[in-house]
Structures are given as structure tokens and as C-alpha cells.
Design a protein that fits this description.
This protein has a single domain (about 5-115), classed as GTP Cyclohydrolase I, domain 2, CATH 3.30.1130.10. Helices cover about 25% and strands about 35% of the residues. The chain has helices spanning about 40-45, 55-65, 75-90, and strands spanning about 5-15, 25-35, 70, 90-100, 110-115. It has a five-stranded mixed β-sheet with strand order 3-1-2-4-5, sandwiched between helices. The chain starts with a strand and ends in a 6-residue tail after the last strand.
Length: about 120
């Protein structure tokens, strides 16, 4: 399957970092979420209920960081991937978290991919 719904560079401001001072205030992160799903029925019926509502995914993820903090962007990426799989049901999800912390780089990022378990048959 090659159908994908992608949310590219969703900007959030969350507390992430290993040192305490880095987590002392929110910092800018960009999140890209790519969801593999079959859009055939949605395309034929023009029915939002037959696909993944990317607006709902975006709103859910934006609310994830309220009152929270993470030490590692790895932990954050995995948490987002598991949330999307569990709550929105794509066959596979890829999450990239970009962080703008090192002065000599454009960004550092972590990308994780998770998939629903194959059905036993």
C-alpha cells in the first residue's frame, strides 16, 4: 500500500531536554507524522468518516504537551507514534521530531516507525 496522509512540520512548543535548564521553558519543535492507510473507500465516497481525520490527529497531538515534559525526543516520538496507532488506526505511522538545540546544525531529529501487528490468519 502506498497511500499516506502526512502532517508536515506541525509546530509545537514543549519542554524537552536532558539537562534541567533545557526543560525549564518550552522550546520549538517540529513534528512530522506520516500515516499509511488505504484511502480508496474515502476517495470513492468522499466521506471523512472513511479515512483518518488529520485535523483531529493534529489537535490531539497539540494537546499532548500540555503540562508535560520529556528528557528525550526519542521518548516523545515513540509516544506520538503509539498514540496515533492506537487512536487513529493507520497500518503504519512514521513520526519525526525536529529540535533546534545545537548552534552548528539546522536541527537534530529522531524518526521512528511503528506498525499495527499483523493479523494472525
Amino acid at each position: 500500500m502506498s497511500d499516506r496522509i502526512e502532517i508536515a512540520d506541525l509546530e509545537v512548543s514543549w519542554r524537552v531536554g536532558v539537562p534541567d535548564h533545557e526543560r525549564s521553558r518550552p522550546q520549538r519543535l517540529l513534528l512530522t507524522i506520516s500515516m499509511e492507510t488505504d484511502v480508496t473507500v474515502a476517495a470513492k465516497t468522499d466521506d471523512l468518516a472513511r479515512t483518518i481525520d488529520y485535523y483531529a490527529v493534529t489537535r490531539r497531538i497539540q494537546g499532548l504537551g500540555e503540562g508535560r515534559e520529556w528528557r528525550l525526543i526519542e521518548s516523545l516520538a515513540v509516544e506520538i507514534a503509539e498514540l496515533v496507532l492506537r487512536d487513529y488506526g493507520p497500518k503504519r505511522v512514521t513520526v519525526e521530531v525536529k529540535k533546534f538545540i545545537l548552534p552548528s546544525t539546522q536541527w537534530v531529529s529522531v524518526r521512528v516507525e511503528r506498525a499495527l501487528p499483523l493479523a494472525k490468519g
